[in-house]
């Protein structure tokens, strides 16, 4: 299979990686998708391999592909599993089951990363550095050690060697395939796949730089300086590097392994939810992935948050909209939920059926008001996100991370207290913020904020219309058109150019050979000019090849 030119075939890593990815896709029955993208001519042996996964759903087969492609791709899949605004909810649920490649890196490779990061031998910094990691994840692994200068017990988080190069290749291939799919498969255009890749790239590039994680942990501990029961491991700032992060070593138990009294379990569940809401509503900064693996119970009454690679941020306006959202949920106000959802959006279709949208929200709210089992706030938020995507409403990425964070913290709360009701716990929060909005100086949003905004829009409307008319009169009004098939145009132009060039060469050979033959220029073969005969032969073969290509339509 030829590697497409737009993948920059000179980049050997991307080129080789593309071949591996294509092989895995064919193995699990996605060869037809590659064919739709104009990429494949695979041997029948590769096609037969997909019969091994005939009984699996497409989502399950894609998960198998991701797992076999290794830790870098697993990390991309895990990131996508948190973004139901970018991929279908069914695929999100499947990708949540991704099994991490827990292959341990060789200790000499870990040593090399540490020594390159600090510019000195590992023994000059740490003693008792354990060769076997205490934890291994997609992008990094953690080793226990002691600082040589202070004797403090620390956790040394080290980025996997070479992972950045593999991620860069995978992201380049994703961007290339997303562009092709967006151009050639009409049914996928509404998914905005190039935007998906852009979001994934931004998140991953932030996460693999451990200095970003260090800053997030320091800020988190500042937020909860007055609440000692919620904390993150202390950061050793003098040893924070892009590829290595040194933290206090914290011992604790997973929430689902905690065996305290029912009162203690309920208290911890409420503590976790209140901590998440405080991060979001008061500080606009939150841990975006507080699942069971990233939370530990310490000293039976404290919660320690780990792994701050992914964090969300909410502006004051976004926090005010989130308060509206919580209040509307508490009141089962479908109209307000719809309004806030559109305020949270990056874009809303201009001709969207608002009444139908509100009716669908009412249907989802009924599951909260009359549940057949436990009330699941996080699941409601994800269902609403999925509904927005179906209507072409694209929510801001930080709101999606917020929904996923609430879902994770709610699941963690139920793991420690099966009777935990997150919606009931949020009602006092909604009431508190509703009261605060009535008090000048404490409100996150003026009670007349909506009216003021509408009046401001109305006052500025004549100015906007005048500006639009002035632009048109000046002849500077422009219209942007998008050619959906432009991606195929360079290849078609190249094919036309090749055929024209071949035809001109053939014609030149025929004319030149004719002149040589007529002028009887030597050398001769059987009494005829050899160069003329050779020219006629080559031009004939070239002409037959061009004719064959034209009839084939390639």
Descriptors for this entry?
globular; 5-stranded antiparallel beta sheet; disordered N terminus; 3-stranded mixed beta sheet; 554 residues; alpha+beta
What is the rounded Rg? Answer: 31 Å
Which band does the percent of strand residues land in? 5-15%
- Structural classification: alpha+beta
Helix content: 55-70%
What is the 3D form?
A: globular
Mean pLDDT: 78
Q: What is the number of strand segments?
A: 14
Largest sheet: 5 strands, antiparallel
Poorly predicted regions = 1-6, 42-49
User: Number of helical runs?
Assistant: 20
Terminal residue distance? 16 Å
Could you provide a short overview of the structure?
The protein has 554 residues and is an alpha+beta fold.
Describe the structure.
It is a single chain. This protein is α+β, with helices and mostly antiparallel strands and 554 residues long. It has helices at residues 12-27, 31-36, 44-48, 58-68, 71-81, 89-95, 107-118, 163-184, 193-207, 210-223, 262-283, 316-331, 334-343, 354-369, 377-390, 397-416, 422-436, 449-473, 489-519, 530-552; strands at residues 126-127, 135-136, 140-147, 153-159, 230-231, 244-248, 285-287, 295-298, 302-305, 311-313, 345-347, 394-395, 524-525, 528-529. The strands form five sheets. Strands 1, 2, 3, 4 and 6 form a five-stranded antiparallel sheet that branches. Strands 5-9-8 form a three-stranded mixed sheet, with helices on one face. The radius of gyration is 31 Å and the shape is globular.
């Amino acid at each position: 299979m030829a590697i497409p030119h737009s993948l920059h075939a000179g980049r050997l890593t991307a080129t080789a990686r593309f071949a591996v990815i294509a092989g895995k896709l064919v193995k699990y029955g996605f060869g037809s998708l590659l064919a739709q993208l104009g990429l494949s001519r695979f041997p029948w042996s590769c096609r037969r391999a997909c019969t091994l996964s005939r009984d699996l759903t497409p989502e399950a087969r894609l998960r198998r592909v991701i797992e076999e492609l290794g830790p870098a791709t697993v990390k991309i899949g895990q990131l996508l599993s948190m973004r139901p605004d970018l991929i279908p909810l069914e695929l999100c649920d499947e990708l949540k089951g991704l099994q991490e490649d827990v292959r341990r890196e060789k200790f000499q490779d870990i040593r090399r990363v540490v020594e390159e990061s600090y510019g000195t031998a590992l023994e000059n910094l740490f003693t008792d550095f354990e060769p076997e990691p205490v934890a291994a994840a997609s992008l990094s692994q953690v080793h226990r050690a002691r600082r040589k200068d202070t004797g403090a017990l620390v956790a040394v988080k080290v980025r996997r060697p070479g992972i950045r190069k593999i991620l860069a290749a995978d992201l380049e291939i994703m961007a290339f395939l997303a562009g092709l799919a967006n151009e050639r498969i009409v049914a996928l255009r509404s998914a905005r796949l190039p935007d998906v890749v852009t979001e994934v790239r931004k998140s991953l590039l932030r996460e693999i730089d451990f200095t970003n994680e260090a800053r997030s942990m320091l800020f988190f501990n500042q937020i909860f300086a007055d609440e000692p029961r919620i904390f993150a491991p202390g950061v050793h700032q003098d040893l924070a590097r892009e590829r290595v992060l040194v933290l206090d070593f914290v011992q604790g138990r997973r929430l689902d392994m905690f065996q305290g009294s029912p009162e203690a379990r309920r208290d911890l569940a409420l503590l976790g939810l209140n901590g998440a809401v405080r991060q979001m509503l008061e500080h606009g900064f939150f841990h975006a992935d507080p699942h069971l693996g990233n939370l530990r119970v310490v000293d039976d009454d404290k919660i320690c948050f780990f792994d701050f690679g992914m964090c969300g941020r909410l502006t004051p306006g976004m926090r005010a909209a989130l308060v509206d959202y919580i209040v509307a949920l508490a009141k089962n106000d479908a109209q307000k939920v719809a309004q806030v959802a559109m305020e949270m959006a990056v874009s809303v279709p201009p001709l969207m059926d608002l009444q139908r949208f509100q009716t669908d929200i009412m249907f989802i709210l009924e599951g909260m008001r009359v549940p057949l089992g436990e009330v699941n706030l996080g699941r409601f938020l994800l269902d609403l996100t999925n509904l927005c995507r179906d209507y072409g409403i694209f929510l801001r990425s930080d709101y999606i991370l917020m929904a996923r964070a609430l879902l994770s913290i709610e699941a963690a709360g139920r793991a420690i207290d099966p009777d935990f009701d997150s919606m009931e716990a949020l009602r006092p929060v909604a009431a508190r913020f509703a009261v605060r909005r009535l008090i000048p100086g404490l409100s996150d949003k003026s009670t007349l904020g909506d009216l003021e905004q509408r009046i401001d829009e109305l006052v500025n409307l004549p100015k906007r219309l005048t500006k639009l008319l002035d632009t048109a009169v000046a002849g500077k009004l422009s219209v942007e058109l998008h050619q959906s098939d432009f991606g195929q145009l360079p290849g078609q132009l190249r094919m036309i150019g090749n055929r024209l060039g071949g035809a001109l060469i053939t014609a030149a050979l025929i004319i030149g050979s004719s002149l040589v033959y007529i002028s009887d220029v030597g050398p001769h073969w059987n009494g005829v000019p050899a160069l003329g005969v050779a020219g006629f032969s080559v031009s004939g073969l070239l002409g037959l090849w061009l004719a064959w290509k034209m009839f084939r339509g390639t």
